[in-house]
Amino acid sequence: MVEFIGYVALGSSQTKFIVYSRGHFQVQVESERWISEAVARFPELEGRLETYDLPGTWGTQSFLDPVTGEQVRKLVASILRIE
Fold first, then answer.
1. Considering the chain, what is the average pLDDT of its residues?
2. Is 54 helix (H, G, I), strand (E, B) or coil?
């Protein structure tokens, strides 16, 4: 996945990325480590990656959940600076 994101970043310098997980990014240090490793491989990703961990328990997580939807909308608005 990081390879694909790095490839897209090379061709589109304005693109920002939200990478979601169903548990991997629950701990902030895991998110920071993942971003750090991605940027080490693809420096053009610096400042262009955000992570999002779906709330809830495995098997019940959904982007259709109103709380999740609102969190994602806020994250996208923040990234695009359209709050």
1. 87
2. coil
